Amino acid sequence: MLAVSACLAFGVSAAPASNQADVSGQPWMNASLSPDRRADLVIKQMTLDEKIQLVHGTGWGVLTPGSPIPERSNFGAGYVPGIERLGIPDINLADSAVGVRMAAYQSRYATLLPSTLGAASSWDPEAAFLYGSVIGRELRAQGFNMSIGGGVDLMREPRNGRNFEYAGEDPLLAGTMTGYLIKGVQSQHVMGDIKHYAFNDQETGRMVYSAEIDKRAARESDLLAFQIGIDIGHPAGVMCAYNRVNGVYSCENPWLLTDVLKDDFGFKGWVLSDWSGTHSTVEAALAGLDMEMPGDDGYFGKALKQAVLDGKVPESRLDDMVHRILRSMFAVGVIDHPVMPRRVVNPFRGRRDARRIAEKSIVLLKNEKQLLPLDASSIQSIALIGSHADVGVLSGGGSAQVDAPGGNAADPHAGGAGWGETVYFPSSPLRSIRKHAPEATVTFDAGTDIAAAVASAKKAQVAIVFVNQPMYESKDRSTLSLPGKQNALVSAVAKANPHTLVVLETGGPVTMPWANRVEGIIEAWYPGIGGAQALANLLFGKVNFSAKLPATFPRDESQLPHPQVTGIDLPMVEGKDGSKMRPPFEVDYNKAGARVGYKWFESKGLEPLFPFGFGLSYTSYAYSDLSVDADGGSATLTVKNTGQRAGTEIAEVYAVLPKASGEDYKRLVGFQRVTLDPGQSKTVTIALNKLCLSIYDAKKDAMVHIPGIYTVYAGPSSAKTPLKATFAIKP
Ligand code: NOJ
Known about the structure:
It contains 18 helices and 29 strands. It has a six-stranded mixed sheet, with helices on both faces. Strands 8-7-5-20 form a four-stranded mixed sheet, with no helix packed on it. Strand 7 and strand 8 form a beta hairpin. It is globular, with a radius of gyration of 26 Å.
């Protein structure tokens, strides 16, 4: 008994029974053969029923109370039983966008990483790889062999409830960061995926809306982010989205799934539907869907078997589905390196990794009169106000919700986090700040009573107001304003104390009517379990800021292509199952086309509050000497640290395509982090992404370089590009 409870206390739950049979003599177990050959060898041995078994899950399981949980399921979001006699293991899938979901459900622990949008602010592929490897490491330890994170939908709608689990508005940045994240997951022999394919760029009406977009704009925006992510990360899975694209459900859209993804991108893995995102058997199978998830809607089980027997779906298509699944399992190593659960996740290692990523993710947006860094040896008093900064940091909700160790730090209660609950993680800014300035008086006021907050701000040298914007899957915000009375709180505190700093914990961009009245602004995003330590290290200058915005911060909603979230005011109607839902509607993505974010602002001549690619640090940099290869393959430039502190600058390279492109805006085509001591200069050569220098030619149905003059710009942000050079592509 003692042994059992000790085990549970350390978060080790009973492992699911293994289905690994003795596989000696099975030629596909020869790891020197290619994954494709190995998959083919297995398929030759499989019965029709075994093939069908592999192409759908077994139901909602733990996600829906009352749903059956199969014996060997590892209590994740999805489960596909393996084929024991052939040595093919079960696939246990877990939601894990920003850390492993529902870990507490099985008395496990999972590290909460900064939001992926935050991590994208690092513009650091190494940080993204580390991010993914933490997720892969912890999934493996918990007995999962597939991650269903990897969100890369572009930020067309800054009020989208899921922006925090995506990677911003630019295809190159988002695709690169997500690709390296997937690489990190798969480095742990855990299969990764990328989602939600495609144009699931808002949550309002996600089950019913149709994203209307022409092929060129599609290929040069969201689909380009997927293409880059897939090229880099080679994910095992692509999760197709709930919404329709140009009228056809994503999960039965032959243009999206077969023409673009499989034929053109050359994606070798399998397409799995979002949970209950499958709407047909024959159409979906023929369009390119390879797996129905979670599997209890009945499209790919018996119905698919019958469709194969009736010749409506050729058996070769079923074989292709199975091939894609098996070859991915071999390629990532989940068969050669089966998961061995019963290991305890190391929370300290996880927190250290999360903190390191957060230090590169938190963006300094304003720092006047040298408010920062705070001088630990001389500062006497600091007033912290708002957002539960005494106990924790905010996290994002929905299927990306990670369970907070010990429960919600701001609202302790029994059981895991409820859907849509605002959950704070136990990483206390108050405690971390006190640790850095032990001689100072550091107070906390909840910020719920503005008069009390003002009184506490008046007594301190510096006031730090923490403000928040909780975001969840399945719900968008209707405005970019901070919720509640937070704007009034900041304005009142700023009036009371001239040295006011605002720390934002938001899922994405927000408006800041008080921006001119405060001395400092920091965007901390949802900073993860190491968030408070990272923030304190940055505030006190132990670490220099280096992050830059992965998305434009508008001045107000009128600057957006859609000043109101499309469909948000449509009255609910009764759906087929009796539930309330919005009637089908269209979202006009042709309005902005490929001009997502900063491209829209530039083409419309709009000045945002903070531009894409912007971020300050405790030092300054100068740019010089840009040159570009004759074929536009790379750009070379020099960055100098002209300040007093060491730092890392993100050098950004943009291009305006030849006139024939019809474009009136810059595109990001390359970037690199450059670490410099005070006074040091470095000349760096930055590869320019070929796809980002291409346009989609509808006649050729291909991404092509058009002839003409390409103008290349470089500098510290999308709005500040002091260097210019050109190269030409001859007809
Ligand atoms: C629906 C979400 O859209 C998807 O991202 C998630 O992976 C599944 N539910 C499973 O939880």
